[in-house]
């Protein structure tokens, strides 16, 4: 089980076929204080791939070292990530918690899209070239892999950046692929990477970058005591 304090967490199974399935979220309190009144939810990071049914579950009490198994119904078409959220009470204080994304493999995909990342300094200026990198991990031999980069501009246009065909990724290996974008507008850009096997989409990841200056309030100078 993975850990994000004060909870250990695991979603199983992590490989399923297409269709309707049950996933089980296992939570363990590894902290020193009891958790109570917990609203527990499982979320999809991409409903196009995996959709989670229902509004969540309730766990009344989780003592230190105690575990709970919470089932969730999902509809799966493509591999994708889910994450868990918990809110309630930790001892006498409000408590909120989220897990990182957890990959659920659907079917037998040839590869998975691990991440996409806009490699830049914070708040680049318009006209400054940005390098975008996607990482693809091979899961089995074969496959007709294609990687597409797109960018959502601040004022609505969805721009194709690059399409890379005939990718070769060995099973168990991991390759990086890059493209560039030169943003001309100020505001938030969302970079998308889509991984396809022939015409079937098997992966999607995003990253966000803000272009332009961010206004910050001036720092207040502390008042000095009067001189004696």
Please tell me about this protein's structure.
The chain has 228 residues and is mainly β. Helices cover 0% and strands 61% of the residues. The protein contains no helices and 18 strands. Strands 3, 5, 7, 9, 10 and 11 form a 6-stranded mixed sheet that branches. The chain has a 5-stranded antiparallel sheet with strand order 1-2-4-8-6, with no helix packed on it. Strands 15-14-17-18 form a 4-stranded antiparallel sheet, with no helix packed on it. The protein is flat. The model has no long low-confidence stretch (mean pLDDT 91).
Report the C-alpha radius of gyration, rounded: 22 Å
The outline comes out as: flat
- Alpha-beta classification: mainly beta
Compute the number of strand runs. Answer: 18
Q: Enumerate how many helices there are, as a single number.
A: 0
* Average pLDDT: 91
How many strands, which pairing sense, and closed or not: the largest β-sheet? 6 strands, mixed
List the secondary-structure elements in sequence, H or E: EEEEEEEEEEEEEEEEEE
- N-to-C span: 63 Å
Contiguous low-pLDDT stretches (5 residues minimum) are none
Beta-strand percentage range: over 45%
The percent range for helix content is under 10%
Salient structural properties:
228 residues; mainly beta; six-stranded mixed sheet; five-stranded antiparallel sheet; 61% strand
Annotate the secondary structure layout.
Layout lengths: L1 E3 L2 E6 L2 E2 L2 E11 L5 E10 L5 E3 L4 E6 L4 E10 L3 E11 L2 E6 L3 E5 L4 E9 L10 E9 L6 E8 L5 E10 L6 E8 L5 E11 L2 E12 L17
């Amino acid at each position: 089980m993975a850990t994000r304090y004060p909870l250990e967490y695991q979603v199983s199974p992590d490989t399923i076929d297409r269709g309707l399935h049950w996933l089980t979220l296992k939570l363990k309190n590894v902290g020193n204080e009891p958790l109570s009144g917990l609203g527990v939810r499982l979320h999809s990071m991409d409903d196009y791939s995996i959709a989670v049914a229902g509004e969540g579950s309730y766990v009344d009490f989780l003592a230190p070292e105690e575990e709970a198994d919470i089932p969730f119904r999902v509809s799966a078409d493509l591999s994708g990530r889910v994450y868990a959220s918990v809110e309630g009470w930790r001892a006498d204080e409000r408590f909120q918690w989220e897990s990182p994304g957890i990959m659920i493999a659907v079917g037998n995909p040839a590869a998975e899209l691990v991440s996409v990342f806009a490699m830049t300094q914070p708040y680049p200026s318009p006209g400054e070239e940005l390098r975008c990198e996607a990482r693809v991990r091979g899961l089995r031999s074969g496959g007709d892999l294609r990687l597409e980069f797109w960018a959502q501009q601040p004022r609505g246009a969805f721009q194709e950046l690059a399409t890379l065909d005939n990718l070769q990724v060995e099973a168990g290996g991991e390759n990086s692929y890059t493209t560039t974008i030169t943003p001309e507008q100020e505001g938030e850009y969302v970079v998308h990477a889509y991984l396809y096997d022939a015409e079937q989409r098997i992966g999607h990841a995003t990253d966000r970058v803000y272009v332009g200056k961010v206004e910050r309030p001036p720092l207040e100078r502390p008042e000095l005591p009067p001189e004696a």
